[in-house]
TrEMBL record:
Topological relation to the membrane, as annotated: Single-pass type II membrane protein
MF terms (GO), sorted A to Z: serine-type endopeptidase activity; signal peptidase activity
Originating organism: Lachnoclostridium phytofermentans (strain ATCC 700394 / DSM 18823 / ISDg)
Protein name, as recorded: Signal peptidase I
Keywords in alphabetical order: Hydrolase, Membrane, Protease, Transmembrane, Transmembrane helix
Cellular component annotations (GO), alphabetically ordered: plasma membrane
Catalytic function, reaction form: Cleavage of hydrophobic, N-terminal signal or leader sequences from secreted and periplasmic proteins
RNA-binding found in the keyword field: no
Known EC number: 3.4.21.89
Segments forming domain Peptidase S26: 28-184
Length: 214
């Protein structure tokens, strides 16, 4: 009687196990990539939003049609500061377009516009940027006090801006604030952070003695 002996192919078994491990690694790697993409997408949608500046009310800081990235988490744990540029909706209008203005008056402060100058708590506001004297004080013609959740906002282009001086905008409540105007997207993919001030008073004084070559 002849007994045939079969040699077991250990190499093939090892190769099979290696392939199995490789497949598992690939699957894990793909799951991790999908998870990272999903997380990044969620963070971007929760934390950031893009909008477009409409009009000339924030010149020279922002120009008409500037693409703006909003930091929607900026005021989740703190209130806006004076001179922050905020993005907000008109109170009571969920479907209104976004407004972009600069914070001037803070909750609890007294605000008035007299002879083209903003007064806060009875003192003329020393603004760190160059602005034209205000021709129309609007609702701020008489002194008023902001509520605990209200902010008084103005456009940098003071005489070409609908802002808290007018009833259709009014004082901005914190719940209507979408976030902080954070980044400007320029053509060709250039990104730059939005400056808090359009131009300092010192720069303007230094430039008064200069003439252009045009």
């Amino acid at each position: 009687m002849v007994i045939s002996m079969m040699k077991y192919d250990f190499d093939r078994d090892i190769k099979r196990k290696k392939r199995k491990k490789l497949y598992i690694r690939i699957i894990i790697w793909m799951v991790e990539i999908v998870a990272v993409i999903a997380l990044a997408y969620a963070i971007i949608n929760v934390a950031l939003e893009k909008t477009t500046m409409l009009g000339e009310s924030m010149e020279i800081t922002l120009q008409d049609e500037d693409k703006i990235v909003i930091n929607k988490l900026a005021y989740k744990f703190r209130d806006p500061k004076r001179y922050d540029i905020i993005v907000f909706k008109q109170s009571g209008n969920e479907h209104s377009y976004y407004n972009i203005k600069r914070v001037i008056g803070l909750p609890g402060e007294r605000v008035k516009i007299l002879d083209g100058v903003v007064y806060v708590n009875g003192e003329a506001l020393e603004e760190p940027m160059v602005v034209d004297p205000i021709r129309i004080p609007g609702l701020a013609d008489e002194e008023f006090t902001l509520d605990e959740d209200e902010f008084f906002v103005l456009g940098d282009n003071r005489n070409n801006s609908e802002d808290s001086r007018f009833a259709n905008i009014g004082n901005v409540v914190k719940d209507d604030i979408i976030g902080k105007a954070w980044i400007r997207l320029n053509p060709f993919g250039i990104v730059n952070k939005i400056n808090m001030y359009s131009k300092s008073v010192e720069e303007n004084v230094e430039g008064e003695g200069k003439t252009s070559g045009e």
